[in-house]
Amino acid sequence: MYSILRNRALVTIGIAEGVSNIGNWINTMAIFALLLFRGGGGVAESSGIFLAGLVPTLLVSPLAGWLCDRFDRKRLMIASELLSGLMVVGLIFAQHTTLIYALLVCQAICGAVMGPARRSSIPQIVAPEQLPKANALLEQIASLIKIAAPLLAGGLLAVLSPHQALILDVISFAISAIILAWLPKLPPAAAPSQHAAAPKSSLGGTLRGNARLALLMALGFSLPAVVMGFDVLASLLVRDSLGGDERLYGLLIGAIGAGSLASTAIVMLRRRAADPWRDATVGIVILAALPAAMAAAAITPRVGALPLLICSIGAGVGIGLITMQVSTLIQQMAPPALLGQVSGMFQSFHTAGQLVPLLVLPMVIPALISIGLYFGMMCAALLLLAAATQIVLGMRRFSPPEQAEPGRATTG
């Protein structure tokens, strides 16, 4: 663990991303305050905020990944932060709702490159055997931000106007860009040049020829789909089936965050390397316990809140294991020259997993299926995914070829 903390480039990325994510939470809370809490908006405005961020990310992520395989990733991350900050400057002065949504779309487009650039940069700055702990460190920082940043943003908006809070978001992007400037150069692997032919492999061919990478895309979709379904429906179940209120709902969300944080500690404190596939599969099975408990609570309120709380902690552990080890597997299995594109495609699947429940659930629940049946279906789907993972892992003909170690970053 201590060797990871001594990796200056990795810690630099973690700090920069943490600062940026704090700003993102301030941005989100400020926009909600501007359009809903103080602007009198309703369901349409609330949905519009989510859609303005998710739809552009879904569409642009493959292009963002392609850029990461063509240009220096350090420069792309800095450009992403600066351009995102510029869009927020526009939000500070925007007066019309349409312009606010347009700027949110532009900000999502500018920020779409950050995820693929970061994921494809990690193998350049850490040794292959250190990838799980490197991803655990970044996930640990992200988990801490998810716990603390909403409280910080809410406190700031208690004393600042939404427009004043957005100024802090601009500052966070600027600070993040300055921190990222301390990184070494992060050129893409096998960059095309006049003397070297472009890689013969393509993204489509890589995914078709490697069932394990395709399986990771399925994981990228299913995890946010389950989490978003919980976010959308859990509050209704807590109110209608358990007779609880926002305190119980907040406690369940906090328990998931605590479990996710615990999973990062498990990975970082291990003395021996573990199989990332095993961790991911175990994470899927543990995560399935949460929708199972939610389904049981919907059927019989006698289940009570305690089993839900325990399963929420377990679900957080599962989410953390899946998130960390899927990133590790992508970094290990994707061809170095296509790592950015694979990361961008994964980000698209992840965004689709967030988007589909937002669009579909209001149309099917409770008109076609009950909340309990939905969570039961989610539990079954996760268990089937875990079984499919084991089946694919047993198919030798789909085993990925050994990848050459990508070139390490150069200083300067």
Report on the architecture of this protein.
The protein is mostly helical and 412 residues long. The protein has helices at residues 2-5, 8-37, 43-68, 73-93, 97-111, 114-125, 131-159, 162-180, 203-208, 211-240, 246-269, 276-299, 305-333, 339-364, 371-393. It is globular. The two termini are 26 Å apart. The model is unreliable at 194-199 (pLDDT under 50).
**Rg, please?**
21 Å
Q: Helix content range of the residues, please?
A: over 70%
How many strand elements?
0
- What's the overall geometry? globular
Number of helices: 15
Element layout with pairings:
Layout: H1 2-5, H2 8-37, H3 43-68, H4 73-93, H5 97-111, H6 114-125, H7 131-159, H8 162-180, H9 203-208, H10 211-240, H11 246-269, H12 276-299, H13 305-333, H14 339-364, H15 371-393
Helix pairs in contact: 2-7, 2-8, 3-5, 3-6, 3-14, 4-5, 4-6, 4-8, 6-14, 7-11, 7-13, 10-12, 10-13, 10-14, 10-15, 11-13, 12-13, 12-15
Condensed summary:
This protein is mainly alpha-helical and 412 residues long.
Overview features:
77% helix; Growth Hormone, Chain: A; 412 residues; 15 helices; globular; mainly alpha
